[in-house]
Write a structure and sequence with these properties.
- This protein is of the alpha/beta class and 251 residues long.
- The chain has a single domain (56-250), classed as TIM Barrel (Alpha-Beta Barrel).
- Helices cover 51% and strands 11% of the residues.
- It is built from 9 helices and 7 strands, in the order H-E-H-E-H-H-E-H-E-H-E-H-E-H-E-H.
- It has helices at 2-36, 68-79, 90-95, 97-105, 125-141, 159-167, 187-197, 215-228, 236-250, and strands at 56-63, 85-88, 109-112, 149-150, 171-172, 203-207, 232-234.
- The strands form 2 sheets. Strands 1, 2, 3, 6 and 7 form a 5-stranded parallel beta sheet that branches. Strands 4-5 form a two-stranded parallel ribbon.
- Helix 6 (159-167) links the parallel strand 4 (149-150) and strand 5 (171-172).
- The chain starts with a helix and ends with a helix.
- Mean pLDDT is 85; it is low at 1-13, 15-41 and 245-251.
């Protein structure tokens, strides 16, 4: 009886060690997968966060109408020597090629919001395809041939839309920090939301359309404040490149 008792303990101990190892591996992988596996061929999803182990964060701006706020924001970014990623609609780009050029001259990254700023969930998938292809054609005619970053209008998408975007070689970019600056909740509230909630790898959504009347002023505090907290502001592509490099190590 004692003989079998000893063997049982060894087996239990062995299974316990294996079980703990598997649980640890699953927890580690689930954390990494949430951050890094953003463009899997099997399950395409949108990127909403970068590497949580690194202090890099991405500042992004949406523009679909107006011109005054965009120029104010570009000036703030230039003063703080920050490069951001701008997602603009094709319709807006056609109307404001001069501001688009200023974005490019400032070494900022360019992404698109499709052509018309209308939710893709309210359109048939064939219409979404036409919108994306037309937007691509517009950007190419304006001299921007390598725009592959896509943020869907209002951030609305489903699996079918992401699969369509991926088939057209777009990478869908979402966000995880949103102070709703376009609602003009107050400069201090925009600042507080960003400063209190931003962590490593975050993607911040702000707006440079004329509706966002308080964003430029908020940036006067946000930009130096984030740097003082140890964050490094990078473009979406830089955030993605770091994530992809880390993915190879994990695999």
């Amino acid at each position: 009886m004692d003989h079998f008792y000893v063997i049982g303990r060894k087996r239990i101990k062995g299974w316990l060690i294996i079980s703990l190892a598997l649980i640890s591996a699953l927890l580690f992988w689930s954390q990494k997968e949430m951050v890094f596996s953003v463009f899997s061929n099997e399950t395409p999803v949108a990127l909403s966060k970068g590497n949580a182990d690194e202090p890099n964060i991405a500042l992004t701006f949406n523009i679909s109408w107006g011109e005054e706020r965009a120029l104010d924001i570009l000036k703030k970014l230039e003063e703080e020597e920050v490069q951001a990623t701008f997602f603009v609609s094709g319709e807006w780009a056609e109307r404001h090629p001069d501001i688009l050029q200023k974005i490019s001259d400032g070494k900022h990254e360019l992404g698109m919001l499709g052509y018309r700023y209308k939710s893709y969930l309210d359109q048939e998938i064939d219409q979404v395809r036409k919108d994306l292809l037309y937007a691509r054609d517009v950007f190419e005619k304006l001299g921007y041939e390598d725009v592959e970053l896509l943020r869907t209008p209002s951030g609305h998408f489903n699996k079918e839309i992401i699969e369509l975007a991926e088939s057209l070689e777009f990478k869908v970019i979402h966000w995880n920090i949103n102070p709703n600056d376009w609602k003009n909740p107050g400069t201090s509230e925009i600042i507080d939301t960003v400063m209190k909630n931003t962590t490593n790898g975050d993607i911040l959504l702000l707006h440079a359309s004329d509706a966002a009347k308080q964003t430029a002023d908020a940036l006067s505090t946000i930009l130096p404040g984030l740097v003082n907290k140890g964050f490094q502001l990078v473009t979406i592509s830089e955030l993605m490149n770091q994530a992809h490099a880390e993915t190879k190590i994990v695999e």
